[in-house]
Structure to design on (506 residues):
């Protein structure tokens, strides 16, 4: 934790700077900075993503058929999501959309296995230490080892649920991580009947564990109603895919956007036209972009994606146990929209249950063990693939030349959609819990809890738009800043002189 006074162009008064660096129990590298005055009043709170990934650029020039495998290297936690979103985009390029029913079923099986394993990992390994022990508990207890010691049954269920999801991925893609099953136009493998039967034998126990996970998340939520109802309550519009009948749909559907007050603002929006709905902005102090609704502009058009949005954005969940759990979630909040971020954990476990139920139905489908697996048709120069990744809406867009090489790539990942929402949550928690208080590790962990509820994948979320921000400072031997130049992500050069410090760009 860095608590140095800092005088910069953003901080001319030399306010005290506190940095939570790195954020813990998230995928990737990020930090939070707070600027406090002498009375510990919060003057600024920001979430910074400090790692840079160049995937959007080095995909260019590669043969299109390599890309569904390459983009998985964005992340070891959600590679399936990138694999399938890219494959869906290139289905359009090769004229293979829609893919054959057998290929569609196998892809869906792979995807829902990913939902199960990722949600189990986040809830039990990353979030549960805070939820079970409390935000202010001793640091050495707030980890999965502490959970395993104090709540061994819950820890074991988390491990086994994730293992089941990974096995689903393995039988559909060839490997638990970074498989190669999906190809433009379909799949390159069917499911082996023996492996399918082995998974089906586990389903009664896995379904029971999934229902226990929903019950645990609900009990935690209802045992501390004031905290869960108020913590980082940041009203936001909610966006996700839904089925054309309004059902929860995590693999393929149309875009729906619901206002913060619950009204549906946009419905049935074709995913191939997403650019008419969403634009992206950049800021010089983070490598993560800021998507926004074109109709409202960059300042007012931010929104939320992910489990909390999806459970409230759909009209129903098309599996019985998860739908019953969704109705309980709605009833517990009297039908009002829920924006307190800790409710995300309950919504996430409802989706985990839905994932297990969907896997069970797909394993009963004989098509996944055979049938035509590839389709083709007239070629196109571009394609867009949108999928609901565990963390929210994931967009892959590509253009391909006549030589089959990718000429353009644009990715908007789930965590990027949530960028402003996470910053608003950081600000809300800082103002409520830290403003005017003596700063302790437990209070700072409140901020991490707010960010962690989004399950951010910071490795996935940092890509190129404009130029890489660069800060250069010239210091005297005694440490005084003689000159400072900042090149922003838009290419603008700013010189603030000796009052500016290199850390203003961070």
């Amino acid at each position: 934790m860095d608590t140095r006074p800092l005088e910069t162009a953003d901080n001319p008064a030399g306010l005290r700077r506190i940095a939570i660096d790195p954020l813990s129990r998230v995928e990737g590298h990020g930090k939070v900075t707070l600027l406090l005055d002498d009375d510990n009043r919060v003057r600024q709170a920001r979430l910074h993503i400090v790692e840079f990934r160049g995937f959007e650029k080095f995909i260019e020039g590669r043969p299109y058929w390599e890309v569904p495998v390459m983009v998985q290297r964005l992340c070891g936690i959600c590679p399936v999501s990138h694999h399938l979103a890219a494959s869906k985009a290139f289905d359009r390029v090769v004229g293979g959309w829609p893919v054959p029913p057998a290929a569609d079923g196998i892809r869906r099986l792979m995807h829902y296995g990913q939902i199960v394993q990722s949600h189990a990992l986040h809830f039990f390994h990353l979030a549960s230490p805070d939820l079970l022990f409390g935000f202010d508990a001793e640091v050495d207890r707030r980890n999965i080892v502490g959970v395993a010691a104090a709540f061994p049954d819950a820890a074991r269920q988390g491990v086994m649920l994730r293992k089941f999801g990974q096995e689903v991925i393995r039988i559909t893609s060839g490997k638990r991580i970074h498989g190669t099953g999906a190809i433009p136009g379909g799949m390159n493998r069917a499911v082996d009947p023996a492996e399918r039967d082995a998974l089906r034998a586990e389903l009664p126990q896995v379904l029971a564990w999934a229902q226990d996970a929903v019950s645990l998340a609900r009990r935690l939520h209802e045992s501390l109603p004031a905290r869960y109802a108020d913590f980082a309550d940041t009203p936001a519009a909610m966006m996700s895919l839904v089925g054309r009948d309004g059902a929860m749909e995590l693999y393929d559907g149309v875009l729906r956007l619901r206002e913060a007050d619950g009204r549906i603002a946009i419905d049935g929006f074709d995913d191939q036209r997403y650019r008419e709905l969403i634009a992206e902005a950049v800021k010089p102090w983070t490598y993560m972009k800021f998507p926004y609704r074109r109709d409202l502009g960059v300042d007012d058009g931010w929104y939320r994606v992910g489990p909390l949005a999806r459970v409230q954005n759909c009209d129903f969940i098309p599996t019985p146990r998860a739908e019953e759990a969704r109705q309980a979630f709605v009833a517990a909040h009297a039908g009002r929209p829920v924006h307190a971020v800790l409710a995300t954990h309950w919504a996430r476990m409802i989706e985990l249950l839905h994932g297990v139920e969907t896997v069970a139905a797909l394993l009963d489908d004989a098509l996944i063990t055979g049938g035509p697996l590839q389709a083709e048709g007239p070629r196109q120069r571009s394609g867009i693939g949108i999928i609901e990744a565990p963390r929210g809406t994931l967009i892959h867009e590509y253009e391909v030349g006549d030589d089959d090489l990718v000429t353009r790539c644009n990715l908007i990942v789930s965590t990027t959609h949530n960028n402003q929402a996470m910053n608003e949550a950081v600000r809300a928690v800082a103002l409520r819990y830290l403003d005017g208080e003596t700063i302790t590790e437990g209070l700072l962990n409140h901020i991490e809890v707010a960010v962690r509820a989004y399950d951010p994948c910071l490795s996935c979320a940092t890509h190129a738009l404009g130029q890489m921000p660069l800060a250069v400072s010239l210091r005297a031997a005694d440490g005084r800043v003689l000159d400072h130049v900042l090149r922003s992500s838009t290419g603008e050069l700013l010189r603030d002189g000796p009052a500016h410090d290199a850390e203003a760009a961070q």
About this structure: The longest strand covers residues 392-400. The chain has two domains: 55-225+237-330+346-410, 468-506. Confidence is low (pLDDT under 50) at residues 1-9, 463-470, 487-491, 497-506. The CA atoms of residues 222 and 316 lie 23 Å apart.
